[in-house]
């Protein structure tokens, strides 16, 4: 596990799909801090970090200004998908959602 600025993480899911989870998580994280036993799982590909698991934790941390956040790198992708195909399939709106959340470009 390592710690990283959340602005360096590239989301792969749209924010709108997780609003309920974020609303539940924010007050918990605000009271107890980031639970390091649940790091954000990422794919490292071409010197970039793509979020695989933990979008709602990332969003809650960003809303609360938590920086850095814990990450772990995974080597495998669902269905053994090649990383370049995975990266091509990321919706552009996912990145923009998180940029708005953070208040500036990622």
Short description:
The chain has helices at residues 19-32, 55-64, 83-88, 92-102; strands at residues 2-4, 9-10, 40-45, 48-53, 69-73. With 106 residues, it is α/β, with parallel strands linked by helices.
The helix/strand order is EEHEEHEHH
For the termini, the CA-CA separation is 22 Å
- Look at the helices and sheets and give the structural class: alpha/beta
Strand percentage lies at 15-25%
Question: From the 3D coordinates, which CATH architecture would you assign?
Answer: Alpha-Beta Complex
The CATH homologous superfamily name equals Conserved hypothetical protein from pyrococcus furiosus pfu- 392566-001, ParB domain
- In total, how many beta strands? 5
The name of the CATH topology is: Conserved hypothetical protein from pyrococcus furiosus pfu- 392566-001, ParB domain
Strand order, largest beta sheet: 1-5-3-4-2
Q: Unreliable segments (pLDDT under 50, ≥5 consecutive)?
A: none
What top-tier CATH class fits best? Alpha Beta
- What is the global morphology? globular
Work out the helicity level: 25-40%
Domain module count: 1
Number of helices: 4
The largest sheet is:
5 strands, mixed
Radius of gyration: 13 Å
Q: Average the pLDDT over all residues and give the rounded result.
A: 86
Protein name: ParB-like N-terminal domain-containing protein
Domain ParB-like N-terminal: 2-93
InterPro entries: ParB/Sulfiredoxin_sf (IPR036086), ParB_N (IPR003115)
């Amino acid at each position: 596990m390592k710690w990283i600025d959340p602005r360096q993480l590239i989301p792969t899911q749209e924010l709108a799909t997780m609003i309920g989870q974020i609303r539940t998580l924010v007050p918990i994280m605000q009271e107890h801090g980031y639970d390091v036993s649940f790091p954000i799982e990422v794919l490292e590909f071409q010197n970039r970090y793509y979020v695989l698991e933990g979008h709602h934790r990332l969003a809650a941390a960003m809303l609360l200004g938590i920086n850095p956040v814990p990450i772990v790198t995974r080597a495998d992708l669902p269905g053994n998908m090649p990383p370049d195909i995975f990266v091509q399939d990321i919706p552009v709106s996912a990145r923009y959602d998180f940029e708005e959340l953070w208040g500036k470009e990622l």
